[in-house]
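Regression test case RT-17, inverse folding.

Input:
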């Protein structure tokens, strides 16, 4: 009996040691790794999720394995609004959210939704990955959110089921779905269209039945939503490109050492390049598929009339964002 008991105890001790050796969660220093959760409502292999995963990889590398980041894609942890609320409470550690709904937590971030804000893509990303971008990310201070980096979500353009739009005048009389925000409505009214706020999931059937004539979005969204099936004409006027934002919870941030904060910030900024490459690839694939389908695309080369059309937007919103507009100029 004693011999059997001795064997059982030995086996139990061996099992404990084996589990400890195979845990796989320890850092290089031998400390237990801290696992964080990052939420993204986009599907696996979407450019933002690719960026998230690169960020996670770099965080683990830069903290010598003391921190690991698990990425939950496809809205597993909730939709954007719910996730931001959880982030503020500290029940989720990190997330990727579009900048448009984040104006609720930082008035200043709304400047990035203004039409034709940047001269070109190169200028835009020089600013967003530079000092100005960091200043804008810092405007979340006091909201229990910490801005880490901006991700690319392309430039928004216009599509419709009626005709090929080449100038703002061609939009007159067309019912175009816009995001439910005063700024979006004002922009399309300035273009001359009839702006119609509507939930995104209802847009396909609304265009199909004639309730709407068209909508606005980027190439990948136009393609993956199948809106290209009911709206044949796409006008590449690239009027606005509000970016995505990679965020951390204040609760997590307060627990990090200065060294680890630096590691997280570096990881976020370095992941931008990978995310933008993935976005460019998806954009090109979507464009090729749309052309192959027979859709007509008009690429605007003279942006003068489009910029002139939205001057009233700057008269209305300019005073609110003048500080940031001046910095850009």
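Golden output:
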């Amino acid at each position: 009996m004693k011999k059997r008991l001795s064997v059982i105890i030995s086996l139990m001790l061996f099992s404990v040691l084996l589990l400890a050796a195979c845990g796989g969660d320890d850092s290089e220093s031998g400390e237990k790794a801290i696992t964080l959760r990052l939420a993204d409502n986009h599907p696996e292999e979407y450019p933002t999720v690719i960026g998230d995963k690169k960020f996670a990889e770099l965080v683990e590398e830069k903290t010598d394995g003391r921190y690991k980041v698990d990425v939950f894609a496809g809205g597993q942890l909730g939709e954007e609004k719910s996730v931001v609320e959880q982030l503020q409470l500290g029940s989720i550690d990190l997330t990727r959210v579009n900048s448009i709904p984040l104006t609720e937590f930082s008035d200043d971030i709304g400047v990035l939704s203004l039409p034709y804000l940047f001269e070109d893509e190169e200028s835009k990303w020089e600013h967003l990955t530079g000092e100005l971008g960091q200043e804008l990310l810092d405007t979340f201070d006091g909201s229990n959110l910490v801005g880490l980096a901006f991700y690319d979500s392309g430039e928004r353009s216009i599509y419709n089921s009626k005709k090929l739009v080449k100038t703002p005048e061609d939009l007159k009389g067309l019912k175009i779905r816009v995001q439910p925000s005063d700024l979006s409505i004002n922009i399309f009214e300035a273009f001359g269209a009839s702006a119609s706020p509507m939930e995104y999931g209802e847009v396909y059937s609304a265009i199909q039945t004639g309730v709407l004539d068209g909508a606005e979005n980027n190439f990948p969204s136009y393609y993956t939503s199948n809106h290209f099936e009911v709206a044949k004409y796409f006008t590449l006027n690239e009027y606005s490109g509000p970016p995505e934002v990679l965020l951390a919870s204040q609760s997590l941030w307060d627990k990090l050492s200065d060294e680890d904060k630096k590691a997280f910030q570096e990881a976020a900024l370095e992941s931008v390049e990978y995310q933008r490459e993935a976005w460019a690839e998806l954009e090109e694939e979507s464009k090729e598929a749309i052309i192959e389908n027979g859709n007509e695309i008009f690429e605007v080369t003279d942006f003068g009339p489009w910029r002139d059309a939205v001057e009233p937007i700057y008269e209305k919103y300019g005073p609110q964002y003048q500080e940031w507009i001046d910095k850009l100029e």
